[in-house]
UniProtKB/TrEMBL annotation:
This is oligopeptidase A. Its EC number is 3.4.24.70. Its cofactor is Zn(2+). The keyword Zinc applies. Residues 219-669 form the Peptidase M3A/M3B catalytic domain. GO terms for cellular component: cytosol. It comes from the Bacteria. Binds 1 zinc ion. One of its GO terms (molecular function) is metal ion binding. Signal peptide: none annotated. The keyword Metal-binding applies. Residues 46-145 form the Oligopeptidase A N-terminal domain. Keywords: Hydrolase, Metal-binding, Metalloprotease, Protease, Zinc.
């Protein structure tokens, strides 16, 4: 009998051995084991921490260890066979998760645990577990419990289908180019990437796709306005009724997701899904978060209006564009940035070959936190481009690990993210090290030239490493509250956005950069120009984030079952109040808004801006104190996980509550 690799009790998954046919049997076994554990815990009269909480953590760890590799492969190496197996297994897990969250025996066992003799972290784990049982509907009557479980299973399925539709729609569109003149304006590096996409399909010439490196290249570099418009429309109508191929339309899924989230929230006694969402966040209410966003919009809008007027005037004078359209803004901004500040973002790529950027990132992490990332080659991976790093402490002991998957490719969903492969868990004499995944969609290497990153890609890499470090540097031994687990969602972006600031630190950029041809680091003169251009069109950028976040909150707060989702109506209402650029009527941004429909940010997208306030304030401590601030940030924020509330972590680090003006200063909007 072949051993199922998803059930192997190993430090790292054997990705090369995992097959679609392993998923369902593994999940069946994991669920059976978890039910047996619940029977032991709930069927006894246990009340001490070891027999209730630690035993429950052990059961949860076994499921996480087995399912994480399967879920990760679904995101980065999707195939029809894997997708089908994943959908079946995910539905089983979702159903079991709802059942476990409503187990009255387990709830009673956690309620029997006396908090008095416990450590701060142990008590916090119990308190959050009790809360999560309540939010899973443990207190509902039998009929309501059954309905709540049905909703949870269906939402899980719809979320997976939403993400699949975005991926499929992204891959479905392409434009084959055989006349190089159509690509006028593109750099040699950008054209080489498009040529590599054509070669994948055994085509000559170039292939314009909706993968992120292709979209960015066309919308910021292509002189041909019609080509930009075609790519912009294809990208903004993915998975919608307006797409060239509407097969993957997410419209009905969105309406159903909103309907079910509202019903689930009402079953739990909340007015709406937004009220349910903030129950696990720092913000006290959706109205508080919306007020925060409205204040930002009011401060940013006058600046954004001036920026748009300048861009429109420039476009008319330079390119004869009478009306600035969404497919013009990136192109015009690149030319303005080059002319006004002497910053050519594509030329800057030459200073950021990915191998050098990683060397510098490794050095930065060692300088900040005293740990070393050491590449290891004997690890089973899912793609030849994937790199694995052991994390060593100052004594050389391996304490954690991280998989890095940098490049865009077919079968891999877009964006950048961090996820948990293994949580930290100390179970009696067994210590499980924390392991993370870091995933990006950077351009590939072309020929003998390594992948060249835009400065924005460097920011993205540091952002995701912030999440990774939050997971890897935890000193909490309980998976439910270690690393990012259990952290309020509007604070979980603090470590990631904190790391972004180093992308603007001179010493860091020197270490991260080496010209691909000469090896020279980023020159002082060019760095000064980049700094001067840092807040170029900051008002427009901030308003765009406020628009997304406000739309998300209102969509969930104002949902009315009698009226349905009204998705475009709500979005257009937000745009009337917030935006200065109005997209065409065919724009269907919500249909690929995976953060809120296929991720964890429902009624929580505002978390990016909320956490940016925290990170701007936190980073200013480095200017005041230097390395001492890094030591304290690791000790009071990264190491703590959810072992105490995020507000207390911040106060312990900064010595006070966050200052709202920090975010305004960060964006150059302070009075």
């Amino acid at each position: 009998m072949t051993t199922n690799p998803l059930l192997a009790d190993t430090d790292l998954p054997d990705f090369a051995a995992i097959r679609p046919e392993h998923l369902v049997p593994a999940v069946e076994q994991m669920i059976a084991d978890a039910r047996a554990a619940a029977d032991r815990i709930g069927g006894s009269n246990a009340s001490d921490f070891r027999d209730v909480v630690l035993a429950s953590e052990r059961a949860g760890f076994a499921i996480a260890r087995g399912w994480s590799p399967a879920g990760h492969l679904h995101s980065v190496a999707d195939t029809p066979e894997l997708r089908a197996a994943y959908a079946q297994a995910q539905a089983m897990l979702a159903e079991y998760g709802m059942e476990a969250g409503q187990d009255p025996r387990m709830f009673a066992a956690f309620n029997r645990v006396d908090l008095a003799p416990l450590t701060e972290a142990e008590a916090r784990a119990v308190v959050l577990a009790r809360r999560d049982f309540t939010l899973s509907g443990v207190g509902l009557d039998d009929a309501a419990k059954a309905r709540f479980r049905e909703i949870g299973v269906e939402l899980n399925r719809l979320s997976t289908e939403f993400g699949n539709a975005v991926l499929d729609s992204t891959e479905a569109w392409s434009e084959h180019v055989t006349d190089e003149a159509l690509l006028s304006g593109l750099t040699d590096n950008a054209k080489a990437i498009l040529a590599s996409y054509a070669a994948e399909k055994e085509l000559d010439g170039w292939l314009v796709t909706l993968r992120e490196p292709s979209v960015q290249a066309i919308l910021t570099q292509a002189d041909n306005r019609d080509l930009r418009a075609r790519v912009a429309k294809a990208y903004a109508t993915r998975a919608s009724d307006q797409a060239a191929d509407p097969t993957h339309d997410n419209s009905a899924r969105i309406d159903r997701i909103l309907e079910l989230r509202h019903e689930a929230a009402r079953l739990l006694g909340f007015d709406n899904a937004a009220a349910r969402s903030v129950e696990t966040k720092m913000a006290q209410s959706a109205d508080e978060a919306l007020a925060f966003l409205a204040d930002l919009a009011a401060r940013a809008r006058p600046l954004a209006e001036r920026e748009l007027a300048e861009a429109s005037a420039y476009a008319a004078e330079k390119f004869g564009i009478a009306k600035l359209e969404p497919w013009d803004t990136g192109y015009v901004a690149e030319h303005m940035r080059r002319e006004r500040f002497g910053v050519d973002r594509e030329a800057i790529r030459a200073y950021f070959p990915l191998p050098r950027v990683m060397e510098g990132t490794v050095a930065l992490i060692e300088r900040l936190y005293g740990i070393r990332l050491v590449e290891r080659r004997d690890v089973s991976v899912w793609n030849a481009d994937v790199r694995y790093y052991d994390v060593q402490d100052q004594s050389g002991e391996i304490v954690a690990g991280v998989y890095c998957d940098f490049h865009a490719r077919a079968g891999k969903r877009g964006g950048a993210w961090m996820d948990v492969c293994r949580p930290r868990f100390r179970d009696a004499d067994r210590f499980h090290r924390p392991i993370a995944y870091l995933t990006c969609n950077f351009p590939p290497a072309t020929g003998d030239t390594p992948a060249l990153l835009a400065h924005g890609d460097v920011v993205t890499l540091l952002h995701e490493f912030g999440h990774v470090l939050h997971h890897l540097l935890t000193e909490v031994d309980l998976p439910s509250i270690g690393g990012i687990s259990g952290v309020e969602w509007d604070a979980v972006e603090l470590p990631s956005q904190f790391m972004e600031n180093f992308a603007w630190d001179r010493d860091t950029l020197t270490a991260l950069s080496a010209h691909v041809e000469t090896g020279e680091p980023l020159p002082d003169e060019l760095f000064a120009k980049m700094l001067a251009a840092r807040r170029f069109q900051a008002g427009l950028f901030l308003l765009r984030q406020v628009e997304f976040a406000t739309f998300d909150l209102r969509l969930h707060r104002d949902y009315d079952p009698a009226l349905g989702g009204r998705v475009m109506e709500v979005l257009n209402g937000v745009r009337d109040e917030v935006s200065v650029i109005r997209p065409p009527a065919w724009n269907r941004f919500p249909h690929s808004f995976s953060h809120i429909f296929a991720g964890g940010y429902a009624a929580g997208y505002y978390s990016y801006l909320w956490a940016e306030l925290l990170s701007a304030d936190a980073f200013s401590a480095f200017a005041e104190e230097g390395q001492a601030a890094g030591d304290r940030f690791r000790r009071e924020v990264l190491a703590r996980g959810a072992s105490r509330p995020a507000a207390e972590n911040f106060r312990a680090f900064r010595g006070r509550a966050p200052e709202p003006d920090a975010l305004l200063r960060h964006h150059g909007l302070a009075a």
